[in-house]
Records
---
Amino acid sequence: MRIAVAGGTGWVGKLVVSALQGNGHQVVVLSRSEGVDLTTGKGLERALNGVEAVIDVSNIVTTSRAKSEAFFEAATTHLLRAEEDAGVGHHLVLSIVGCDRVDMGYYLGKRRQEELVRRGRVPFTVLRAAQWHEFAAQTLARGGPLVVAPRMRCQPIAAREVADHLAGLAEGTPLGLAPELAGPEVLEMVDMVKRLQRARGGRRPVLPVKLPGKVGRDMTGDGLLPLEAGPRGTITFAEWVGQDAQVR
């Protein structure tokens, strides 16, 4: 199959591209570095020529509702319009477990993205996945004398397992809202960050931060946990930390 990956140069996007290529598919990367701008639609018509399916893992790093909604609305609108014109038969988007229940700014953008996909004319699959193990590494990568870690209860999964699952879904028929994907265990993000820092030999103090109001209560409660049984990753966070140590 000829499959396009929107955001194919990002953290999980590269893994999706690798998984698809490993399965023998021809991959088209939709990114600015390849002459495609999702927020304006530039380059999409040419890039989607002959494409059978699109996996959208594009992203913006923000906690602002306005910025999140603006990005996902623009990118999704242009993608769906171009896919319809090109005759793409499957639009697969990566979303987040709990984005329909937790009213954080970024999640509201993902919620808007899902809404546009459901209303569109292109057959679709929405996969909500739990936070990745790599989120702890992204938190540590932020500079400063302190590590600011969000208080959140989650069921994290390795990004590689998310990518493999997306690749498999792209080979099948559109499912609408797919069963939620999560990892093998429920953990606290603050603990994950501390464990990863210890394994890397870091010594910066970790400052737990709980968001105010209902959002904070939802994130520290069950708001980010899957509601039903579904596919589960097998790589535990401890195993992932061990792999990280070997790579480093």
---
Amino acid sequence: MSALIASTSAVSARELAVLVVEALNLEDTDPQQMDLTASLFEDGLGLDSLDMLEISLVIQQRYGVKLKAGDPANEAIFASLQSLADHINTVRAAQA
């Protein structure tokens, strides 16, 4: 994906699923089969805080959206791939 497309088009939860699988090397996970509203942690994908940090770095590099470790909204932001995509799109729209 070119930087221009990444900077102007909305981010989909499915796109984030592919990004997460690639960034975290989740070899046994098919991003096309992932439940986009399932929890990223615990009973969902079972990610941990280090995974969250890695995802945050990739999102900042790809989309220019900074996600801070101490943000009290992180629980809601990282609740699911859909909530993460919604947050990225909201921040990018505010930056435009």
